[in-house]
Design goal:
By secondary structure, this protein is mainly beta. The chain is built from 1 helix and 15 strands; from the N terminus they run E-E-E-E-E-H-E-E-E-E-E-E-E-E-E-E. The protein has 2 domains: 95 residues, no CATH class; 73 residues, Elongation Factor Tu (Ef-tu), domain 3 (Beta Barrel), CATH 2.40.30.
Length: 187
């Protein structure tokens, strides 16, 4: 289910990578990654009123914290890299891989993307060469990727769910407001 077509005035992305951390009495820290990752967002809509306000509020209420939805996050869902056609993966990759070679896409550090048919969104951590289409991605793959598998790099939809059980609405006297939504990626 796609989030209603409303504008956002503020987007705050967060990268959540849980880890085990232990600090000994010598003050030496030992940190071990658990290998998991998800994106989290604080989204604030532009000013809403009338039907846009009511339908967006109803959309969030109907989903609660249980049902996921897709949202294209402004700015973050638009690539800085160069696209010259349908983007795909050149060679298949296994779970845990983090180097991807793209076809028809020159990646830029910080670009978000997802593989066709996958819910997880990845980010270009760094481009491997100045002129090439190969990049290190973050996080590592959680699913296999096939040869010539399609890649979404423009208007990347994040599959998320609301993280708060209470949807709060403060309606101003002129009957308009902004909605603040806290959500986390689900896959």
């Amino acid at each position: 289910m796609q989030f209603p077509d409303v504008s956002f005035s503020v987007t705050v992305p967060k990268s959540y990578s849980p880890a085990y951390k232990n600090e000994a009495q010598s003050l030496k820290s030992i940190v071990t990654s658990v290998g998991a990752h998800r994106w989290e967002f604080e989204l604030t809509t532009g000013i809403l009123k009338g039907l846009a306000l009511r339908s967006t509020f109803a959309f969030l209420n109907a989903r609660g914290v249980h049902d996921s939805f897709q949202v294209v996050v402004p700015y973050w869902s638009q690539p800085l890299g160069h696209i010259v056609g349908a983007v795909s993966v050149v060679t298949p990759k296994s779970i845990g891989a983090n180097i991807i070679e793209f076809k028809n896409y020159t990646p830029a550090s910080g670009d978000f993307f997802k593989f066709a048919g996958h819910a997880k969104v990845y980010q270009i951590a760094k481009k491997e060469s100045a002129t090439g289409n190969t990049a290190t991605i973050y996080p590592r793959l959680i699913s296999t990727v096939g040869r010539n598998e399609g890649v979404v790099v423009n208007d990347v939809p994040f599959t998320v769910r609301n993280t708060t059980e209470l949807t709060k609405l403060k309606l101003e006297l002129n009957r308009q407001t902004k909605l603040k939504i806290n959500c986390e990626e689900v896959f």
